[in-house]
Write a structure and sequence with these properties.
This protein is mainly alpha-helical and about 150 residues long. The protein is built from six helices and two strands. The protein is globular and about 60 Å long.
Length: about 150
């Protein structure tokens, strides 16, 4: 693995400079981040954690987290987007077999795919009990917390 940490953080800094110009205005509009994703792709930040053997950058989580922090300086939404991408694409090595890792890892690096996701951490055992005034905090109970 090649340690080019500072080079990747510098690339992220360039992205940050572009994002900072209109981040607040873009956030207010709530538009899809199509141009911003193109910016991440152009900087080749989406293949950052893909191993070099699969044509990725082969960097570590230290570098990925530094990239996310750098981007968050200008645009928290885009930082969250790339942060989830790093987590989701890393699932190839947690749950995928070697052929899947090789195929999807190579494609992610070559095409700078963005692995998107939305997570809802709400526990399925959560029970809300209405009170006269609605759902006050004391009326919320979780069956799992009583286990």
């Amino acid at each position: 693995m090649s340690d080019k940490h500072d080079e990747w953080v510098a690339k992220a800094r360039e992205v940050t400079a572009t994002l900072a110009v209109d981040a607040a205005a873009r956030d207010r509009t709530g538009a899809e981040p199509i141009a911003e994703v193109k910016l991440l792709k152009g900087a080749e930040l989406l293949g950052l954690l893909i191993p070099q053997a699969l044509d990725g950058a082969g960097q570590t989580w230290r570098t990925a987290l530094a990239v996310v922090r750098e981007i968050a300086r200008a645009d928290g939404s885009i930082a969250q987007l790339i942060g989830y991408h790093y987590v989701n694409s890393s699932n190839l090595w947690l749950a995928g077999d070697r052929p899947i890792q090789e195929r999807l890892g190579r494609l992610t690096a070559a095409r700078q795919w963005l692995w998107g996701d939305a997570v809802n951490p709400v526990e399925p055992d959560l029970t809300l009990t209405p009170a006269e005034t609605g759902y006050p905090g004391s009326a919320v109970s979780s069956q799992s917390s009583r286990r």
